[in-house]
Amino acid sequence: MTFYTITISDHYKEIRLRYLYICYTFLSTAITVYYYQLEFIYLLTKPFIYLNNNLIATDITEVFFNILKLCLILGFIFSLPIIFYHHWCFFHPSLYKTEAKKLNKYFFLFFILIIIEFLLIYNYLFPIICQYFTSYEINIFSNLEKTKLLEISPKISSYLSYSIYIYLSVLLFLQIPYFFIFLFYMNIYSPIQLSSKRSLFFLIILCLSAFFSPPDIISQLFLTISLYILLEICIYIGYIIEMKNHIK
Questions:
Q1: Which of 7, 8, 50, 183 is deepest in the core (most CB within 10 A)?
Q2: C-alpha–C-alpha distance, residues 135 and 52, integer Å
Q3: Cβ pair 178, 204 in contact under 8 A
């Protein structure tokens, strides 16, 4: 059996090479998004446009800078699989085979579920949010004709910022169970420890709900209850994983 000694300079060269690949992937992805900017803008604004509403721009440079912002954000999001892949290839040799197999299964399931979650948010949740906010329009019917007394036509900058905020916030909250399942799966944290600190986590949930939800009691209650249900699901799944580990 032949053993190879890897020095710090070898690790540095590998890290530099992998980050060059990551930067190249990010730049090429952002340029591709910029080339197909109309298609991506249409896909992002589709839930709002289909409600017979329009977007406006009040500054001559507003559209350009928002398209540039969208290209950078989407370029980073689309580059995430490559970013995770290169980091995984760098840390993979330092893991045991059993740990590597567990993490391979976990990350594969994680990426599949995050794609499903994104499609559910795009096709169901975000259209409902857009429909809810556009319901505050005021229409007047006179002589069988409809005129809008109050029309909702947001700026493209506010719409893009708000839509990206919604997508990232919901996806972030949905990753909470995966985070705890990962800790249970790798025996870093136990469901008993989590269940014994319910009051502390409930306080954290209240703070997160107050910070991320709109300033009304209904939204805060809905987000608080949803996060607490996720916490109980995490504890339940943790006990199942612990039982399987004891059986093995």
A1: 183
A2: 12
A3: no
